[in-house]
């Protein structure tokens, strides 16, 4: 399904990623930007999906992204937290969380039942200028997964099977990036937050201040201040800087590349 040229491009990107100076976030950004160049994608997201109890839907925190401005990123967070989204992506979630398989699904794969076009999520995606996407999930442990989304703008072509295979094979080869750099406290406590609180948390971890969050979420300052106060109390911190310090951890790695069996693509 992929050519020798594609295989060489994957190996070259993996090698260059491992050689990138800096921490894990630098390597992840290099890898994702390189993948987007390779398959013609516009934007990407990489997060930790975590759940409180077996069978619970995952929540997504610690989000890194590229290609999204603040407005589009805020809308993307609203999509992620929308209750319809859980139903639409449920086949992918089930395969990653219950069967413990590395799985990659396109929007077409996810929407075989036609739920997407009749959902509010479709309107939110239009507002975020997202026309096509695929999701790739990699099991990290019994209560978390590495979750990656790759996106094209509205009006652009669907991802081909070749492009999905390239991404799936690339992500299969980086268990060291999937499993490292996540805060254990984030994994344990984030599922207990309300959806709006998680949106605010992710915007704060992305570096936005209170006034920026007010503007992007179209909420009052008092409402956002209340969410921030709740978040600080929940994680036992008293400032934005302490919150960032608590979760931006494990940003170093000295190991090598390895492989693991994969699932749907």
TrEMBL record:
It comes from the Bacteria. Residues 190-247 form the HTH luxR-type domain. It comes from Rubritalea profundi. This is HTH luxR-type domain-containing protein. InterPro entries: Sig_transdc_resp-reg_C-effctor, Tscrpt_reg_LuxR_C, WH-like_DNA-bd_sf. It holds the Pfam family GerE. GO terms for biological process: regulation of DNA-templated transcription. Coiled coil: none annotated. GO terms for molecular function: DNA binding.
